[in-house]
Amino acid sequence: MNKAIFITVRTGSTRLPKKCLLEINGKKNIEFLIGRVKKSKKADIIVLCTTILPEDDVLVDIANRLEIESFRGSVKDKLERWKGATQKYNVDFFVTVDGDDLFCEPELIDLAFEQYERNNPDFIEEKPGVNVSTGAFTYGIKVKALNKVCETKTSTNTEMIDKYFQNLPFKIEELENIPEELKRPEIRMTLDYEEDFLFFKTIIEAFEEREFNLYDVIDYLDKNPLVIEINKSCQEKYLENQKK
Question: pTM score > 0.70 for this model?
């Protein structure tokens, strides 16, 4: 069984241009994110999944330098991009991490891998802002289910991927065994707007380059509640954009 983490990222963001390359404490956001997912204890491989566009050459260079794998595929169709990566690296199940999610939690990623080994679901989800913070965890996907979706879908616009799995008779589960301390859906931890960048910048600089995890972030925010307010208003815009 080959279990992978797919970091889904491109430089062609529109709301906050080239947000993955913005720097905090001299480190690019994507470099920070790669460092976080490397803390997973269950992943067999980490793959940066980006596009074939020349503008994303820089992301492949970063992946090579930080010694993770990379795959280049469709510009718009994330599902086909993931499918290509699963074929190249012989993956059976993967957890996807968006390039926006600087505080994704490796412990939650590993819980998804354990749940797959235990229950054999097709799709593991955690709805944004319902149980954990938006950005703490995204999806776990069985490759056989992904292949079925790619066979049946009629669109290449797959930015919002959950509906493609929910519309087929798959075994879909919510992420299990989430620690109570990490159940903080009111906190927004994803990067789409300038306010989000300020939120991440404030927290990362507060730790002064010390190692920290999601527990540490939540403890810091509980002691500094005004930081939560920096990007709180962005969540409504984010959810409305998802609906569209």
Answer: yes
